[in-house]
Design goal:
The protein has 10 helices and no strands.
Length: about 160
């Protein structure tokens, strides 16, 4: 499986060194950074909206085994019982109805190591999408959202150990 840094670098417009720096920053700094805003603003939201049925199909098919993996192999305790929440959230985000801070709050209970291990696998779900532009845009969108989640999880771990 690809490394976390490489996964982000391949799907976002950041080098591995830039990703490493971003992951070490406080969440508020990253959320307000011009780099993240530029990345989010560069998303082709029209394409994402047009291809929501494609993404919904991928998530409906791929999320149940992904959730089993999270629960059984990574020991994540609170795992959704259906892909509906993720699909609904992604749709809400694409339509500017959901915020990144809400996404962070929803994922606070997920242990950092499980979250980090799941990012490459989550992006790989879209490998079967035949149209390259659609596949890449969804991987980019999911990578940007996951980057924020990993920043938050790392910050939470630093606070927990008092660093």
């Amino acid at each position: 499986m690809r490394s976390l840094l490489l996964t982000f670098a391949e799907n976002l417009s950041f080098s591995e060194i830039q990703v490493e720096k971003i992951l070490s920053q406080p969440l508020t700094k990253v959320l307000n950074s011009p780099e993240l805003q530029q990345e989010l603003n560069s998303l082709d939201t029209n394409l994402l909206k047009e291809t929501l049925p494609t993404a919904g199909g991928v998530l409906a098919k791929e999320l149940p085994p992904f959730y089993n993996w999270l629960k059984n192999e990574l020991g994540v305790k609170r795992v959704p019982d259906s892909p509906d929440h993720a699909t609904t959230w992604v749709i809400g985000f694409v339509h500017n109805q959901e915020s990144l801070t809400h996404l962070v709050e929803l994922h606070r209970p997920v242990p950092r190591l499980a979250l980090e291990a799941s990012v490459p696998r989550l992006l790989e779900m879209f490998e079967g999408v035949e149209e390259a532009q659609v596949r890449q845009e969804w991987q980019k969108a999911i990578a940007a959202l996951c980057l924020v989640l990993v920043v938050a999880a790392r910050e939470q771990d630093r606070v927990a150990v008092g660093v």
